[in-house]
Design brief:
- Helices cover 30% and strands 29% of the residues.
- It folds into 2 domains: 243 residues, BirA Bifunctional Protein, domain 2 (2-Layer Sandwich), CATH 3.30.930; 92 residues, 3-Layer(aba) Sandwich (Rossmann fold), CATH 3.40.50.800.
- With 440 residues, the protein is an alpha+beta fold.
- The protein contains 13 helices and 24 strands.
- A hairpin with a 2-residue loop joins strand 18 and strand 19.
- The protein has a 7-stranded mixed β-sheet, with helices on both faces. Strands 21-20-22-23-24 form a 5-stranded mixed β-sheet, sandwiched between helices.
- The radius of gyration is 25 Å and the shape is globular.
- It binds adenosine-5'-triphosphate (ATP).
- The site of adenosine-5'-triphosphate has 16 residues, from strand 11, strand 14, strand 17 and helix 9.
Length: 440
């Protein structure tokens, strides 16, 4: 394994500033003073986040025949959370510092108040992390609803629906991407831990005897996904939880950890959850959630292997690992070396000047590229400044339309990472880009 890289001590500040300055991530409700721990994804951030989710969906659903998708409701009745155990046990130990009165999660502070250094706290109290609300106009137990704290339960409650509507049998999976909500005691570190976030979860149902093998398979597969999308291997590691730290039903949990500016921390958890979830929902709902294997005549409750990732957290890891400052022609340039599949814009179309004839050919170029790639279009400032602006947000290719284009029907394609430029005829532009990205 490679040595862990040394990080710029200001990396988190630099990325946070860039994210705000260039429209990736804004503080939510900023004009009202902000709302703690909620963020809005701006014009560039929404593209990056969508691309992260799209890359996950492609790897987990589109390119496989054993996994199908689902989009379940965010609001759910208490019955779901009673069965899953969340009502009783989805709690964090909450303590108050006796000196400065700050509130902390006891398991995250090592016995010392991170605010004032005091070691005196109130006794820990269990604090349920679910957001409780009310559905409909009548108050009372019957109308209590919860915002889901994870997407997984919607998959378990639809297990029988999916099994009876698609021709799948174990081993098979159900994947889902969507918002989850947790009333975190100490949301922190930008979008690493927020109260509203997006998850990408897949529940893989397997015959119990094969569970260990599939657990190992998913650990390796998920680690490889981050590497394939450009995170250096040295910034990732696997952390297998000790048996005594596992929840009572878990037969094994391994986290994929990323080297965040404060150290290695969880990106994704892969767990062998046994038959806990399906058995609990079967018991509480009275509906059989098992599988009858016609080839062996055996009926069993499948075991579940769950890779559970955070989309917003992954986006932050991609941003942090892509951020670079390097020297070009004696000047420092900031460049996001994002994989082209993740970059907010794949191509920027830049007419050399605002002359109508150049803008008109640029329209033609956009017509060629926009059906295939997300494109930016920028006509202001010097071309050098415009290249820097695109480097800073990770645009892999700049296509410059100049006065020669009017006669030779060719454009200059500049590569973000090497800054090298090639002249490409308009009619071969799409094929050229597809070749350099490795699409064809
Ligand atoms: P922690 O112990 O850090 O609170 P967890 O182990 O409970 O997290 P899981 O329930 O395994 O987290 O959630 C799966 C994934 O969802 C996490 O690996 C993370 O990427 C993401 N996630 C969980 N909570 C949050 C949050 N509050 N903000 C952003 N992402 C989150």
């Amino acid at each position: 394994m490679e040595a862990t890289p040394t990080l710029d001590p200001d990396l988190l500040d630099k990325v946070t500033n860039l994210a705000k300055r260039r429209g990736f991530i804004f503080q939510s409700a900023e004009i009202y003073g902000g709302f703690r721990s909620t963020y809005d994804y701006g014009p560039l951030g929404v593209n990056l986040l969508r691309n992260v989710k799209q890359a996950w969906w492609r790897a987990m659903v589109q390119t496989r025949v054993d996994i199908v998708g689902l989009d379940a409701a965010i609001l759910g009745p208490p019955a779901i959370w009673a069965a899953s155990g969340h009502l009783e046990t989805f709690t964090d130990p909450l303590v108050d510092c006796l000196k400065c009165k700050e509130r902390w999660r006891e398991d995250k502070i090592d016995g010392v108040c991170p605010n004032c250094g005091s070691t005196q706290f109130t006794a820990p109290r269990a604090f349920n992390l679910m957001f409780k609300t009310q559905a409909g106009p009548v108050e009372g137990e019957g109308s209590t609803a919860y915002l889901r704290p994870e997407t997984a339960q919607g998959i378990f409650t639809n297990f029988a629906n999916v099994l009876s509507t698609v021709r799948k049998k174990p081993p098979f999976g159900i994947a889902q991407i969507g918002k989850s909500f947790r009333n975190e005691i100490t949301p922190q570190n930008f979008v690493f831990r927020t109260r509203e976030f997006e998850q990408m979860e897949m529940e893989y149902f397997v015959p119990p005897a094969d569970a260990e093998e599939w657990y190992r398979y998913w650990i390796a597969t998920r680690l490889a996904w981050y590497i394939d999308l450009g995170i250096p291997e040295a910034m990732l590691r696997l952390h297998e939880h000790a048996k005594e730290d596992l929840s009572h039903y878990s037969k094994g949990t391994t986290d994929v950890e990323f080297f965040f500016p404060w150290g290695f921390d969880e990106l994704e958890g892969i767990a062998n959850r046994g038959d806990y979830d399906l058995s609990q929902h079967a018991k509480h709902s009275g509906v059989a959630l098992d599988y009858f294997d016609q080839s062996t005549g055996e009926r069993y409750t499948p075991y579940v292997i769950e890779p559970a990732a955070g989309a917003t957290r992954a986006m932050m890891a991609f941003l942090l690992s892509a951020y670079h400052e390097d020297l070009v022609e004696g000047e420092t340039r900031t460049v996001l070396r994002l994989d082209w599949r993740l970059a907010p814009y794949q191509v920027a179309v830049l007419p050399l000047s605002k002359k109508p004839e150049l803008e008109s050919v640029s329209g033609e170029v956009l017509g060629i590229l926009q059906p295939h790639y997300m494109c930016d279009y920028d006509v202001t400032q010097s071309i050098g400044r415009r290249y820097r602006r695109q480097d800073e947000v990770g645009t892999p290719f700049c296509v410059t339309v100049d006065f020669d284009t009017l006669s030779d029907r060719a454009v200059t394609v500049r590569d973000r990472d090497t800054t090298s430029q090639v002249r490409v005829p308009l009619e071969g532009l799409l094929t050229h880009l597809r070749k350099v990205t490795g699409e064809i």
